[in-house]
Structures are given as structure tokens and as C-alpha cells.
Amino acid sequence: MYVSCERSFNPSLNGKPVIALGNNDHCVIARSQEAKNVGIKMGQPLFQIRELIEQHQVQICSSNFELYGDLSSRLMSLLTNFADHVEPYSIDEAFVQIDTSFEGIYPSYQGLGSAMRDTVAQWLRLPICVGFGLTKTLAKVANKCAKTRPELEGVCVINSLESANEALSDFKIKDLWGVGSRYAAMLKKNGIETALQLRDVGDIDWVRDRMTVNGVRMVYELRGYPCRLLEINAPPKKTICTAMSFGQLIPDLKNITDALTTYLARCCEKLRRQESLARHVTVFLHTNPNRKTPGNGLPAKQYSASRSIRLPHHTNHLPDFLRYAIPVVENLLQLGYNYQKVGIILNDIVPESFRQQGVFSDWPDEKALQIGKTIDRLNHRYGRDKVRLASQLYQPDWSQVQGSLSQAYTTDWKQILKAS
Amino acid sequence: MIDTLDPIPPGNIWAIDPSERVPIPFYLSTVQAGFPNPAENFLRQRLNLQDLCVQHPDATYFVEAAGESMIEDYIYPGSILVVDAALLVESGKIIVCWVNGACTVKRFVRYGKLVVLFPSNAHYTPLYIHPETDQFLVLGVVVRIVSKPPRWDSDQLKTAQDYVRTHRRE
Predict the structure, then answer these.
(1) Secondary structure (3-state) at A31
(2) Separation of alpha carbons B97 and B102, rounded Å
(3) A345 in the Ramachandran plot: left (φ > 0), alpha (ψ -120 to 50) or beta?
(4) Average pLDDT of A391-413?
(5) Which of A53, A71, A57 is nearest to A6 (CA)?
(6) Locate the Peptidase S24/S26A/S26B/S26C domain: which residues (chain B) (predicted)?
């Protein structure tokens, strides 16, 4: 998906091996088919593949999440042109519920799938694969088939017993939706290697014993009985986390508190976006576990720590969190180490309408909540972090390294495409 | 001393006769003080450029023009082009496309298998695209052009002032 987005605005990357780097340009998070073919693996650190890159002229992109996010939301919104009910499942996947009402418009599921593919290719220049099935699990199987079998031209339909048998008979159990490496090993040991074998398992209680009720659901879904329904209005998140590694190792408290403030500001924005309040804060920090001491090449001394605190009240107001988070990080920090990452996890999240006053505190403060919303609107209009706390540095030392970042073609007037 | 009591003229003093009472209806609804705003019935959303320019929000991109190859079609360096990728590309339309990796805005003409991109500036020559050898990808059709009006330089301003001076009625 990430490479396709880069190609969408830079077609000269078509046909070439391309990789997208994440995490300060340290490791590979997305590869084009050509890059897979030359042997670059997912998650590989950049320094391990330098030779491959030079040898095959692999193109490198830093991850441009602004662009990917916008193209993703365009894709999801485009899909609602085809059906009323669309569930975005991840940044590049969605479940679409096709009603029978489309029958007059498109001759077949195959035709509908091709129309979706063609529209997305024309509007967004992204290649997609479409899988049809009676249940979500079967649709995932069909999608995988559409992706791996070029003769299907990106559309696979499982709507009959024969097509299901055909697709499931050579579908490896480890590729099935909801089967992790442990379940895959366990099933393999018991002689179940394809999805077909799991579907036709005789003793459903055996599945229940080994794989809990989720395994039973999986089997029924494979048999064509929907157990997982479409989740159109995604429930608000139960945990919010922001933890990015620094662009360079940071030894001092000032920069670390600054990063902490900025990450907390991000978390508060996320909280307000889903109209929630949180109460439980976890702060953690650690050094780079792979680092060698520059002089002698021995593994460097390591330090990591985390601590959780519970605020006296629920809030989404940044200064409230900071009042507790900054002493925590001051407490955790040991001088003499170079830190790689600090992170925040917010827990105990409740809806914004939640009003339970504490015994000793008069919260949540309506004024503070209102200020947060105003700050969000200002930053939305004038750019991220335009209104921020005075303790936040403007050009910090710890910002992410993104050496080959493409432009934000669709979200910044200054970075739009230029045509001569 | 000032007499604070105004004497009531005898003509203003009436005797009340209860048998001649006229009932006055009492309306429970409130009455707005002040003049009602007649425009209230005609309130509508204010006009919005987005509604005018963007027909398919998911398929619309903004592209900045550079160079002077399309100047006769009112596309100047720095103009913002509103490009709709959902529209059909037909001969004669202005499109934004990539030719061998370079992004360009031109008039699209199909001639058999050949695609020709026409500039609208006499100093430029058309671009011939061979489908087999050239890499060609269309972004979309230009549906609007957003430009600032050109600024007068000091010469133009002076000419205008001179014109006013010479044509002024005495």
C-alpha cells in the first residue's frame, strides 16, 4: 500500500524495485513486488541490505503517512459509491457489504469487482484486489486468492460450494484470517494443513477446546454462516499510545520532557477526536538495545523503565497529564545513558460525557475541555503544533529522520504536484 | 418651591360605567419587539468555491502549473489547476499527465493509436506519445483554473497614467 501510494504520484517508480522505510529510516516496512523478488525482507534493517539496494537500484522512500492516510480515506469514501455499508478494517483493507440491490446495475460479482478495481485505478491510481464471499473469513480467503493468482485479474468470487472447495483446498492454514503461528503449528501437528480440512473438521468441540469460541466462529464462517458482522461505526479505542523513537540518541532530560510533552499532545488530540477522557497514564523510556559502545564494540549498557500513574480524575487536557507525567519521567530517568525512545500509553478511557466528580477534585473542568477543542481547531487550520505549550521546543533535537520523504501532495498547498 | 404634582385637567377625568365593558381577547403567544427580519425566510448557505469547482471530492487533486506552455488557455506559472480524475479523458480536453515521469499539463488529442499533447503557446511544439515506447499516465482532466490577476509593472502603470493625463477634459 505504501509503495503504491508513492507510485500514485510518481509513476516513474513503476516497474522498479521500491521500498518504504519506517522508524527513522531504519528498517523496511513496505516493499514492491520487484523488491520482494530481489530478496528484501519485511522489517529488515537498512544497513543489512545496502548492497542489494546498490546492486538492483532499489528506490527508497521514507514513510509519508500524511499522504498514505489521505489516499486511504479517499479509498474508503470511494467504496461507499458502490455500497452503503463499508467497514474500514485497516489503512488498506475494507469490508463492503454488497446488497442484492446492485443486481440491476452490475451483471455479476465479477463485473462489480472489476468496476471497483477500475474506478480505484482511475481515481487514485492504486491497484486493489477484490474478494467476494458469504462471510468475512471467506471474503478474506477470496481476496488472498485474487492477490496471488494473476489469472483472476484481481477479482475472486466465492459464491458456491464448488468455488469454495476449490479456493480452500490449497489455502494454507497459516494464511487464514485469525490463525497465528501458534494455532497454525498446533493444527499442523493434528494433520490440518489447509483451510478446507479445518472447515470439514468433524468434531466442533475439539476446535472449541483447542481454539476457544473464536475457532468455532472461524469454522462456521468457512462454512458460510456469518459470525463476524460488519462494524460500521468503529467503537472508540480503549487504549491510546504514542511512542516514536528519536532521530538520534538523546541523553538529556530537557529533550526527553519535550518529546514527552509532544507525544502527550498527540495523545490528547486522539482522545478529543474520539470524544473521550482518560485517567491512567503509563510512561516508558529505553535505550537502544542493539547499540554497541563506539570505542570497543562491546554491547552498550542498557536501561529501560516504565511507570504507571492514575490521575485523580478523567481528562483530555494536556496540562493535567503533564502535571503528573513530567515528575514521573524525571523520576525514571537515569543520567549517563543515551535514550532511544520515550512513550506514552493512556488507559481507562471513558466517553466525554462521563461526569463523576472526585472526592477531593472538582473535575473535569468544562473550561479546560473547551480550550482543548479550540486548540485542535486552530492547529487544524494553521498547521500542527502552531498553538502549543511554551515548554515544547520548536525545532527539537529528537525529531524523526526522514531522508527521502515525498511531498504531501494532497494535504499541503505548498507541496502540491507541479505540472509544466 | 416646585409643585411636583401635575394637576389633571378636568377633561381627562371619566366616570366608569361597568355595564359598557368590552372584553379584549388575551393572546398567549409572545410578540417580538422590534421589526421582524424579512430576510430570515430567505436564509441559505453562503456560496462556497468548493461546491463550484469540485464535483468528485475523492477524485480531485490540486496541481500547480509551471512554465508558459499553456498561456493562451489562461494557465500561467503559479496557477492552481483543479484536476478531476473521475472524468473521461476525451480529445480536446486539457489534462494533467505524466510523460516518462515528468508531470505536464497539455491539451489531449488522440489520433488513431497515437496520443498527441498540444501546448497552447505558439512558441512550443506538440508532444507525440508512442504508446509502446513512452510511459504515459493520466492524472485527470483540468476542470477549473485558479489564478491571481496579473500585476501591472511600473511601465504599464505609467502608460495608464499618461493616458489619463492626455485624455483629460480641460
Answers:
(1) strand
(2) 8
(3) beta
(4) 76
(5) A71
(6) 25-143
Give SS3 for B91: coil
Q: Active site includes B91?
A: no
Return the residue matching grid coordinates 475439539. A206
C-alpha pair distances (Å), B108 with each of A156, B63, B90, B94, B120: 35, 17, 7, 6, 11
- Euclidean distance between CA atoms A32 and A167, whole angstroms: 25
A408 and chain B in contact, CB less than 8 A: no
Q: What is the pLDDT of residue B98?
A: 93
Chain A window 181-200: which residues touch B at a Cβ cutoff of 8 Å? none
Asked if the C-beta of B62 comes within 8 angstroms of chain A's C-beta atoms, the answer is yes
In tens, the pLDDT along A84-135 reads 888 888 888 999 988 776 666 777 888 889 999 999 999 999 999 999 998 9
Of chain A residues 12-51, which have a CB less than 8 A from chain B?
A: 12, 14
Find out whether A148 and A171 touch, Cβ atoms under 8 Å.
no
Q: Which CATH architecture group holds B13-167?
A: Ribbon (2.10)
Q: How many residues does chain A have?
A: 420
Nearest to B59 by CA among B33, B82, B31: B82
Active-site residue (options: B19, B69, B120, B148): B69
Interchain contact B86–A (C-beta under 8 A): yes
Q: Is the dihedral of CA A26, A30, A35, A36 positive or negative?
A: positive
Asked whether the beta carbons of residue A418 and residue B66 sit closer than 8 angstroms, the reply is yes
Q: Do A77 and B59 touch (CB under 8 A)?
A: no
> What mean pLDDT is reported for chain A?
85
Measured between beta carbons, the chain A residues lying within 8 angstroms of B101 are 10-12
Predicted confidence band of residue A178 (pLDDT cuts 50, 70, 90): confident
Question: CA-CA distance, A291 to A300, in Å (whole number)?
Answer: 6
What was the ipTM of the complex prediction? 0.76
- pLDDT tens track for B55-92: 999 999 999 999 899 999 999 999 999 999 999 999 99
State residue A278 phi and psi, 5-degree precision.
-130, 165
A258 C-beta neighbours (distance < 10 Å), count: 21
Residues of B within 8 A of A419 (CB-CB) are 63-66, 81, 96, 103-105
Residue B2 pLDDT exceeds 60: no
The residue extents of the domains of chain B are 13-167
| Rounded Cα–Cα distance for residues A129 and A149 (Å) | 11
The dihedrals phi and psi of A327, each to the nearest 5 degrees, come to: -60, -35
- Report residue A28: phi and psi, to 5°: -80, 125
Cell numbers 492524472 label which residue? B139
Average pLDDT over residues A327-354: 85
